[in-house]
Protein backbone atom coordinates (compact mmCIF):
# COMPACT_ATOMS: atom_id res chain seq x y z
CA UNK A 1 0.00 0.00 0.00
CA UNK A 2 1.25 3.46 -0.85
CA UNK A 3 -0.74 5.86 1.31
CA UNK A 4 -1.77 6.12 4.93
CA UNK A 5 -4.75 8.46 5.08
CA UNK A 6 -4.61 10.65 8.16
CA UNK A 7 -7.80 12.61 8.85
CA UNK A 8 -9.62 13.80 11.95
CA UNK A 9 -12.28 11.27 12.93
CA UNK A 10 -15.14 13.66 12.17
CA UNK A 11 -14.08 13.84 8.51
CA UNK A 12 -14.26 10.05 8.00
CA UNK A 13 -17.40 8.63 6.39
CA UNK A 14 -16.22 5.02 6.10
CA UNK A 15 -13.46 3.20 7.96
CA UNK A 16 -12.54 -0.42 7.26
CA UNK A 17 -10.01 -2.12 9.54
CA UNK A 18 -8.62 -5.63 9.03
CA UNK A 19 -11.66 -6.79 7.06
CA UNK A 20 -11.53 -10.52 6.40
CA UNK A 21 -14.01 -12.96 4.86
CA UNK A 22 -13.53 -16.69 4.32
CA UNK A 23 -15.64 -19.22 2.49
CA UNK A 24 -14.50 -22.55 3.87
CA UNK A 25 -10.76 -22.76 3.32
CA UNK A 26 -10.82 -19.97 0.74
CA UNK A 27 -10.03 -16.42 1.92
CA UNK A 28 -11.90 -14.00 -0.34
CA UNK A 29 -10.87 -10.83 1.54
CA UNK A 30 -7.77 -10.72 3.74
CA UNK A 31 -7.01 -7.98 6.28
CA UNK A 32 -8.23 -5.11 4.11
CA UNK A 33 -8.02 -1.64 5.68
CA UNK A 34 -8.79 1.82 4.29
CA UNK A 35 -10.66 5.05 5.03
CA UNK A 36 -13.00 7.14 2.88
CA UNK A 37 -13.27 10.81 3.77
CA UNK A 38 -16.39 12.93 3.65
CA UNK A 39 -16.78 14.52 0.24
CA UNK A 40 -14.53 11.90 -1.37
CA UNK A 41 -15.14 9.56 -4.30
CA UNK A 42 -13.13 6.43 -3.56
CA UNK A 43 -12.52 3.96 -6.38
CA UNK A 44 -12.19 0.25 -5.64
CA UNK A 45 -10.60 -1.68 -8.49
CA UNK A 46 -9.39 -5.20 -9.06
CA UNK A 47 -9.43 -8.15 -11.46
CA UNK A 48 -12.36 -10.58 -11.52
CA UNK A 49 -12.39 -12.69 -8.38
CA UNK A 50 -10.18 -10.27 -6.47
CA UNK A 51 -12.68 -9.75 -3.62
CA UNK A 52 -14.47 -6.57 -4.71
CA UNK A 53 -18.05 -7.84 -4.54
CA UNK A 54 -17.43 -9.65 -1.27
CA UNK A 55 -16.08 -6.43 0.23
CA UNK A 56 -19.04 -4.46 -1.08
CA UNK A 57 -21.56 -6.90 0.37
CA UNK A 58 -19.89 -6.58 3.77
CA UNK A 59 -20.02 -2.78 3.54
CA UNK A 60 -23.73 -2.99 2.68
CA UNK A 61 -24.40 -5.30 5.62
CA UNK A 62 -25.31 -8.28 3.43
CA UNK A 63 -22.36 -10.40 4.55
CA UNK A 64 -20.88 -10.67 8.03
CA UNK A 65 -17.08 -10.40 8.18
CA UNK A 66 -15.11 -13.16 9.88
CA UNK A 67 -12.71 -10.55 11.25
CA UNK A 68 -12.29 -6.81 11.18
CA UNK A 69 -14.45 -3.75 11.65
CA UNK A 70 -16.59 -1.51 9.45
CA UNK A 71 -17.45 1.95 10.78
CA UNK A 72 -19.84 4.25 8.93
CA UNK A 73 -20.10 7.85 10.14
CA UNK A 74 -19.02 6.80 13.63
CA UNK A 75 -21.31 3.73 13.88
CA UNK A 76 -19.78 0.24 14.02
CA UNK A 77 -21.49 -2.25 11.74
CA UNK A 78 -21.02 -5.06 14.27
CA UNK A 79 -22.64 -3.11 17.09
CA UNK A 80 -25.34 -1.15 15.24
CA UNK A 81 -26.00 -2.53 11.75
CA UNK A 82 -29.37 -0.77 11.44
CA UNK A 83 -27.78 2.66 11.93
CA UNK A 84 -25.06 1.86 9.38
CA UNK A 85 -27.58 0.69 6.80
CA UNK A 86 -29.71 3.80 7.30
CA UNK A 87 -26.66 5.94 6.53
CA UNK A 88 -25.83 3.99 3.37
CA UNK A 89 -27.43 3.78 -0.07
CA UNK A 90 -26.40 0.62 -1.92
CA UNK A 91 -26.51 0.34 -5.72
CA UNK A 92 -25.70 -3.25 -6.80
CA UNK A 93 -24.53 -4.25 -10.26
CA UNK A 94 -27.54 -6.56 -10.63
CA UNK A 95 -30.50 -4.89 -8.94
CA UNK A 96 -33.05 -7.14 -7.29
CA UNK A 97 -36.46 -5.53 -7.48
CA UNK A 98 -40.01 -6.59 -6.63
CA UNK A 99 -41.30 -6.96 -10.16
CA UNK A 100 -45.00 -6.96 -9.23
CA UNK A 101 -44.60 -3.42 -7.90
CA UNK A 102 -44.62 -0.36 -10.10
CA UNK A 103 -41.55 1.84 -10.10
CA UNK A 104 -43.40 4.40 -7.98
CA UNK A 105 -44.52 1.74 -5.48
CA UNK A 106 -40.97 0.45 -5.18
CA UNK A 107 -39.71 3.96 -4.40
CA UNK A 108 -42.48 4.32 -1.80
CA UNK A 109 -41.37 1.03 -0.26
CA UNK A 110 -37.73 2.15 -0.05
CA UNK A 111 -38.78 5.50 1.42
CA UNK A 112 -40.78 3.70 4.12
CA UNK A 113 -37.77 1.54 5.07
CA UNK A 114 -35.71 4.69 5.65
CA UNK A 115 -38.61 6.66 7.25
CA UNK A 116 -38.08 9.29 4.57
CA UNK A 117 -40.00 12.57 5.08
CA UNK A 118 -42.68 13.21 2.49
CA UNK A 119 -40.99 16.40 1.32
CA UNK A 120 -37.82 14.46 0.55
CA UNK A 121 -39.74 11.66 -1.19
CA UNK A 122 -41.40 14.20 -3.49
CA UNK A 123 -37.96 14.88 -5.00
CA UNK A 124 -38.24 11.61 -6.94
CA UNK A 125 -39.92 13.45 -9.82
CA UNK A 126 -36.66 15.31 -10.40
CA UNK A 127 -34.69 12.06 -10.75
CA UNK A 128 -37.44 10.27 -12.72
CA UNK A 129 -37.36 13.11 -15.20
CA UNK A 130 -33.57 13.04 -15.44
CA UNK A 131 -33.69 9.30 -16.18
CA UNK A 132 -36.66 9.48 -18.59
CA UNK A 133 -38.80 7.37 -16.24
CA UNK A 134 -41.71 9.74 -15.58
CA UNK A 135 -43.92 7.96 -18.10
CA UNK A 136 -42.92 4.56 -16.71
CA UNK A 137 -43.28 5.16 -12.98
CA UNK A 138 -46.73 3.56 -12.77
CA UNK A 139 -45.83 0.52 -14.89
CA UNK A 140 -44.90 -2.80 -13.30
CA UNK A 141 -41.16 -3.28 -12.89
CA UNK A 142 -41.42 -6.62 -14.71
CA UNK A 143 -41.91 -4.52 -17.88
CA UNK A 144 -38.64 -2.63 -17.34
CA UNK A 145 -35.44 -3.25 -19.27
CA UNK A 146 -32.23 -3.89 -17.32
CA UNK A 147 -31.20 -0.27 -17.86
CA UNK A 148 -34.54 0.99 -16.55
CA UNK A 149 -34.21 -1.19 -13.45
CA UNK A 150 -30.76 0.25 -12.89
CA UNK A 151 -32.17 3.77 -13.22
CA UNK A 152 -34.97 3.13 -10.69
CA UNK A 153 -32.33 1.88 -8.23
CA UNK A 154 -30.31 5.03 -8.91
CA UNK A 155 -33.41 7.14 -8.29
CA UNK A 156 -33.93 5.41 -4.95
CA UNK A 157 -30.31 5.95 -3.92
CA UNK A 158 -30.20 9.65 -4.74
CA UNK A 159 -33.67 10.17 -3.26
CA UNK A 160 -32.36 8.93 0.10
CA UNK A 161 -29.50 11.47 0.11
CA UNK A 162 -27.42 9.25 2.42
CA UNK A 163 -23.95 10.38 3.56
CA UNK A 164 -22.46 7.25 1.95
CA UNK A 165 -23.30 5.64 -1.39
CA UNK A 166 -21.82 2.20 -2.09
CA UNK A 167 -22.09 1.50 -5.80
CA UNK A 168 -21.03 -1.56 -7.79
CA UNK A 169 -20.60 -1.06 -11.56
CA UNK A 170 -22.92 1.96 -11.82
CA UNK A 171 -22.97 2.23 -15.61
CA UNK A 172 -23.99 -1.35 -16.47
CA UNK A 173 -26.99 -1.25 -18.78
CA UNK A 174 -27.18 2.54 -18.96
CA UNK A 175 -27.37 4.49 -22.20
CA UNK A 176 -24.73 7.22 -22.72
CA UNK A 177 -27.07 10.03 -21.64
CA UNK A 178 -27.99 8.30 -18.38
CA UNK A 179 -24.37 7.33 -17.71
CA UNK A 180 -23.34 10.98 -18.01
CA UNK A 181 -26.17 12.03 -15.68
CA UNK A 182 -25.08 9.44 -13.10
CA UNK A 183 -21.50 10.73 -13.19
CA UNK A 184 -22.69 14.28 -12.61
CA UNK A 185 -25.01 13.18 -9.79
CA UNK A 186 -22.16 11.33 -8.08
CA UNK A 187 -19.87 14.36 -8.38
CA UNK A 188 -22.58 16.64 -7.01
CA UNK A 189 -23.30 14.27 -4.11
CA UNK A 190 -19.62 14.37 -3.15
CA UNK A 191 -19.45 18.16 -3.51
CA UNK A 192 -22.20 18.38 -0.89
CA UNK A 193 -19.91 16.63 1.63
CA UNK A 194 -21.13 13.09 1.07
CA UNK A 195 -18.98 10.11 0.12
CA UNK A 196 -18.99 7.57 -2.70
CA UNK A 197 -17.45 4.10 -2.59
CA UNK A 198 -17.29 3.13 -6.27
CA UNK A 199 -16.34 -0.26 -7.66
CA UNK A 200 -15.98 -0.49 -11.42
CA UNK A 201 -14.15 -2.27 -14.21
CA UNK A 202 -14.26 0.92 -16.26
CA UNK A 203 -10.89 2.49 -15.66
CA UNK A 204 -11.92 5.58 -17.62
CA UNK A 205 -14.76 6.20 -15.17
CA UNK A 206 -12.47 5.64 -12.19
CA UNK A 207 -9.86 8.00 -13.62
CA UNK A 208 -12.47 10.69 -14.27
CA UNK A 209 -14.37 10.49 -10.97
CA UNK A 210 -12.18 9.19 -8.18
CA UNK A 211 -10.13 11.24 -5.73
CA UNK A 212 -8.29 8.14 -4.51
CA UNK A 213 -8.16 4.54 -5.67
CA UNK A 214 -7.65 1.22 -3.90
CA UNK A 215 -6.59 -1.83 -5.91
CA UNK A 216 -7.39 -5.26 -4.51
CA UNK A 217 -5.67 -8.42 -5.81
CA UNK A 218 -6.28 -11.94 -4.49
CA UNK A 219 -8.24 -10.53 -1.56
CA UNK A 220 -5.47 -8.18 -0.41
CA UNK A 221 -5.26 -4.42 -0.87
CA UNK A 222 -2.35 -4.16 -3.30
CA UNK A 223 -2.18 -0.37 -3.68
CA UNK A 224 -3.91 2.71 -2.31
CA UNK A 225 -3.54 6.36 -3.23
CA UNK A 226 -4.23 9.17 -5.62
CA UNK A 227 -3.67 8.70 -9.33
CA UNK A 228 -0.39 10.58 -9.00
CA UNK A 229 0.87 8.39 -6.16
CA UNK A 230 -0.12 5.25 -8.07
CA UNK A 231 1.80 6.55 -11.09
CA UNK A 232 4.90 6.89 -8.91
CA UNK A 233 4.43 3.43 -7.45
CA UNK A 234 4.09 1.87 -10.90
CA UNK A 235 6.95 4.04 -12.23
CA UNK A 236 4.71 5.22 -15.05
CA UNK A 237 4.80 8.97 -14.61
CA UNK A 238 2.94 9.92 -17.80
CA UNK A 239 0.53 7.00 -18.06
CA UNK A 240 -3.21 6.65 -17.66
CA UNK A 241 -4.94 4.44 -15.15
CA UNK A 242 -5.18 1.46 -17.52
CA UNK A 243 -1.41 1.13 -17.83
CA UNK A 244 -0.96 1.71 -14.08
CA UNK A 245 -3.60 -0.89 -13.19
CA UNK A 246 -2.07 -3.50 -15.49
CA UNK A 247 1.41 -2.84 -14.14
CA UNK A 248 0.28 -3.18 -10.52
CA UNK A 249 -1.86 -6.26 -11.11
CA UNK A 250 0.30 -8.35 -13.42
CA UNK A 251 1.58 -6.73 -16.61
CA UNK A 252 4.15 -9.50 -17.10
CA UNK A 253 1.40 -12.09 -17.42
CA UNK A 254 -0.53 -9.89 -19.86
CA UNK A 255 2.58 -9.32 -21.97
CA UNK A 256 3.12 -13.09 -22.23
CA UNK A 257 -0.52 -13.67 -23.22
CA UNK A 258 -0.42 -10.99 -25.92
CA UNK A 259 2.85 -12.37 -27.29
CA UNK A 260 1.35 -15.85 -27.42
CA UNK A 261 -1.76 -14.61 -29.23
CA UNK A 262 0.36 -12.75 -31.78
CA UNK A 263 2.36 -15.93 -32.31
CA UNK A 264 -0.84 -17.86 -33.11
CA UNK A 265 -1.63 -15.43 -35.92
CA UNK A 266 1.69 -15.82 -37.69
Q: Could you explain how this protein is built, in words?
A:
α3 runs parallel beside α6 (146-160) and α9 (227-234) packs across α10. It contains ten helices and ten strands. β7 (164-168), α7 and β8 form a beta-alpha-beta unit. It is an alpha/beta fold. It starts with 11 loop residues before the first strand and ends with a helix. Strands 6-7-8-3-9-10 form a six-stranded mixed sheet, with helices on both faces. Strands 2-1-4-5 form a four-stranded antiparallel sheet.
Observed structural traits:
40% helix; single chain; four-stranded antiparallel β-sheet; 10 strands; 266 residues; alpha/beta; disordered N terminus
Radius of gyration computed on alpha carbons = 19 Å
- Major beta-sheet overview: 6 strands, mixed
Query: How many beta-strand elements?
Result: 10
SS content category:
alpha/beta
Strand fraction: 15-25%
Query: What is the helix/strand order?
Result: EEEHEEHEHHHHEHEHEEHH
Distance between the termini: 41 Å
Unreliable runs: 2-6
What multimeric state do the chains show?
single chain
The global form is globular
> With helices defined by DSSP (H or I, 4 residues minimum), what is the helix count?
10
Arithmetic mean of pLDDT: 90
Helix content: 25-40%
Strand order of the largest sheet: 6-7-8-3-9-10
Describe, in short, the structure shown:
This protein is of the alpha/beta class and 266 residues long. It has helices spanning 52-59, 81-86, 103-113, 118-121, 124-130, 146-160, 176-191, 203-209, 227-234, 241-264, and strands at residues 12-23, 26-37, 41-45, 67-72, 75-76, 88-91, 164-168, 195-199, 212-217, 220-225.
Amino acid sequence: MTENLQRPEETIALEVAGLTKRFGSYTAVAEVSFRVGRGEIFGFLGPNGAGKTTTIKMLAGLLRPDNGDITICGHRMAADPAACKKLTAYIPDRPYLYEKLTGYEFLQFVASLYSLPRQQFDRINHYLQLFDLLDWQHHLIECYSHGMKQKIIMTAAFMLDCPLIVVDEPMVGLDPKSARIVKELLKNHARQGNSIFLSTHSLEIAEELCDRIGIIVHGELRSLGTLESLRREARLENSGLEEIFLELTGADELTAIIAALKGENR
